[in-house]
Amino acid sequence: MKRIIIALAVIVVLAAGGGIALSLNTNNGGAVLTASGAGHEVSRADVEENAKGHPFRDQEPDSVSCPGGLPAKEAASMQCTAVYKGRPKSMTISVTEVKDDQVTVDFAILDKSAKIGADEKK
To answer: How far is CA 37 from CA 43, 80, 90, in A?
Structure first.
């Protein structure tokens, strides 16, 4: 959880400098997934399927694409892309707890759709 907070703080600072208004959605509940295999990870398919059930602004994503499986290690995280009504959004999936093969994860969406600064002057 500390890693996601630090990462999100860095994103907020960088976005503020770039003139982007941010909206972060973390109030969508987590999930308990099952790790398996020699690498002791949650498969890419399982991560993507479970991520589809986590809404942003009361809307479930049309699709979720992740770069691979999620390691079953506390504080591990990865960036995925969730598509809502044709608009891609960055989704961070973070491991908060691991007990044997049970991996508890949280989902967070970063919305940088509203720009401020130069665009407002038009």
So the answer is: 9, 21, 27
